């Protein structure tokens, strides 16, 4: 690395030194070697191109998918005195920016990927000296990634036109498969891959089935007095939750893309300034906001992928202080996710399916959550982190294969058309008018579950849905999915985690 690197880092950015893999990445870029940096959110990706942009001759072109994010980055860069500009459809000063670029008066030029397709843009790039191509959110180039953007495919041909300009691709979220794809798509050698540590040791992970969501979220809120984010799946849900959770006595706000822009901006600003606010938001919230003291992130439903989960929970505890990430999931989340997968283009379905089953493994495990998470990002973590629900609560993982078979048999014998409640009644032998009329009380599965085993029925149902052994039809009736057979034939087993007894609930109710 050139000797002026560290002094420039200190002078321009005011940082005493590099963090983690930043030094490796910057070193490679200054050596003009093509690089893919996989670094978790908050690890300091921007510096990896901003510092070289200041040090190298010419202008660094940064491709970034979100205009709002670009403007945040622009403000941050200008704040430390970097000569930067954005070139997007919403910018009024495009003429001026182009003139500055041509005059060599810019260190950084942020552009959206769709520019790459335009011949004009290529001509523009030819009209000045380029130092570096920085491709932010590089997973967007991969169909294996969770956020494929076709425009990103146009970047490689554009960059190929400037073979001497080095390339730096950056992403926070990429499993092994996606990484390999990014390297290939963007023409970067395998040796150019730099991955930084993903562990966030101060975040305690907890995942539980949803039962009484409002109560469960209120419990999380009461246990964590600092600011927190509750992620919900729909806009309507964010508003309903914000209203319901206000009863905890904490200030609450909703945040989603459908809100009036002024209200949305105010809610975000209030949250950033607050020390105890709970914001109920869709996943759009959090990108580009820098609030280091978020104490908890709660998911009211299943996130889209492990990548999404990691990124969203990663908004907690950026200051390094203890923080909590709590996910509440339901079997219907998996059913809905599978339905959505059925609707995407066929060539993307295998990737989506793999992503969902990785998420299922995280949710289902009775082992260390952090272990599953870090393994997903290609790390080799310890077996027992000591800071997740399973490591702390020694969950009771029980073999429930027999109960699962009983459940499947009951679904089968009643004709694969009844909902979960009815099947449960059959298994427990709860006589109703319906069961009498249907003649189901004479079935061999009638009342075959009793005693302790009753407590296993709901966890077993969730596990069966999660694995796609059971599905719901359009009318809410249960029917077999592809994984049912192996269980019935005795070729697969199923264990469920029985959550540790909840003395917590009682204690808190007493305190409240
Ligand atoms: P990312 O894009 O990877 O999520 P950012 O580039 O936004 O991360 O950086 C996260 C935070 O870390 C920012 O507040 C940034 O100023 C800070 N930061 C980056 N590099 C360093 C460093 N070497 N030393 C101290 N702070 C740093
Ligand atoms: Zn653990």
Automatic annotation (TrEMBL):
Q: Which branch of life, at top level?
A: Bacteria
Q: Which SMART domains match?
A: DEXDc, HELICc, HRDC, RQC
The Helicase ATP-binding domain is annotated at 26-192
Q: Which Gene3D superfamilies match?
A: HRDC domain, P-loop containing nucleotide triphosphate hydrolases, Winged helix-like DNA-binding domain superfamily/Winged helix DNA-binding domain
What is the catalytic activity of this protein?
Couples ATP hydrolysis with the unwinding of duplex DNA by translocating in the 3'-5' direction
Q: Which cofactor does it need?
A: Zn(2+); Mg(2+)
| Residues in Helicase C-terminal domain copies | 212-360
Q: What family name appears in the similarity comment?
A: Belongs to the helicase family. RecQ subfamily.
Query: What name is this protein filed under?
Result: DNA helicase RecQ
- State one molecular function term (GO): ATP binding
Q: Which GO terms describe its biological process?
A: DNA recombination; DNA repair; DNA replication; SOS response
EC category name = isomerase
- A UniProt-annotated Pfam family: HRDC
Q: Name one GO cellular component term.
A: replisome
Name the Enzyme Commission number(s) assigned to this protein: 5.6.2.4
**Keyword vocabulary terms for this entry:** ATP-binding, DNA damage, DNA recombination, DNA repair, DNA-binding, Helicase, Hydrolase, Isomerase, Metal-binding, Nucleotide-binding, Zinc
Q: Does the keyword Lipoprotein apply?
A: no
